[in-house]
Amino acid sequence: MRIRVLGSAAGGGFPQWNCNCRNCDGLRKGSIKARSRTQSSIAVSADGESWILFNASPDIRQQLEAFPRMQPGRTVRDTAIAGVVLIDGHIDHTTGLLILREGAPLRIYCTDAVFEDLSTGHPILNVLHHFCGVRRTRIPVGRPSDFRVEDAPKLRLSAIPLASKPPPFSPHRNDPRPGDNIGIRVEDEETGAVLFYAPGLGSVGERVVQCMSESDCILVDGTFWSEDELLEEGIAGKRASEMGHLPQSGDHGMISVLRPFAHARRVLIHINNTNPILNEESEERSIVEAAGIEVAYDGMEITL
Ligand code: MLT
Ligand code: MN
Ligand code: ZN
Predict the structure, then answer these.
(1) I want to staple 222 with a disulfide (CB 3.0 to 4.6 A). Which of 111, 113, 173, 271 is the partner?
(2) What SS3 state is found at 105?
(3) Residue 78: what are its φ and ψ, rounded to 5°?
(4) From the CB of 193, is ligand 1 less than 6 Å away?
(5) 146 with 183: CB under 8 angstroms?
(6) More confident residue, 41 or 142
(7) What ligand 1 atom has the least distance to the C-alpha of 11?
(8) Which atom of ligand 1 is nearest to the CA of 200?
(9) pLDDT (tens digit, 9 = 90+) per residue, 220-249?
(10) In a mutational test of the pocket of ligand 1, which residue from 87, 91, 220 has the highest number of ligand atoms less than 8 Å from its CB?
(11) Distance (Å, rounded) from C-alpha 27 to C-alpha 92?
(12) 182-188 and 146-147 as β-strands: parallel, antiparallel, unpaired?
């Protein structure tokens, strides 16, 4: 299985257009050692030819251009994207769908909860019907949980519902449903390799722990270093837990959660621009690395 990190930042990217936090300002001025990053998305393939796109970020045009395999050029209009799997309905994971409107009907895989939000509160799927059209396949959140993406051979997927809130525009903002946000297990049937991907992970339940223990690569929520990071930077915002993100630091933080799974590659993704781990010379970055945890970057490739 091949995994390509298309975008490793959280919503807003790094640097964010209007942000002068220590990281964004430092990156622009060249006063910190850090790399710019586009918004959250990965692509996964078993054969290197047919790829599943996980989430479609507003930066997708730039991300595809940086990865020529996505444009094989077999016919006058072509793509290597077999289907798009959405793990939630957030802006940073879905608005890139509009950029893909020129092609064949988009094959979109999402839960009923996400489908409803993208047909009502933010009716992006309705809009797409006036362009390329959409062929939507339901991701089950109960059991049996397995599903496949057509034309992406040898990959077996399953969803794990995660506790979180749907996006602000959702009619269900204040009554969350299973399927608003999912983690995805991807198994390569030929090699047996398993990936667990969950860029939004607010709390870690039994199913998530079980899945992590079976995975060769755990690619998870790296949004915030601390619970109050936005407030500490002087940015009016919510706490990490209110946004459905488990911070890395603290007794029960992501570093502690990942500690028992040293058999696997453990990689943080969906990193917010305020997170001190983006500064490669920060103390926080050295703590993460000393724990054997990697920090995803755009263009990172992982082969399992
Ligand atoms: C999140 O990951 O919490 C959301 O993408 C935040 C946002 O919508 O900007
Ligand atoms: Mn996000
Ligand atoms: Zn910033």
Answers:
(1) 271
(2) coil
(3) -150, 155
(4) no
(5) no
(6) 41
(7) 9
(8) 2
(9) 999 999 999 999 999 988 999 999 999 999
(10) 91
(11) 21
(12) unpaired
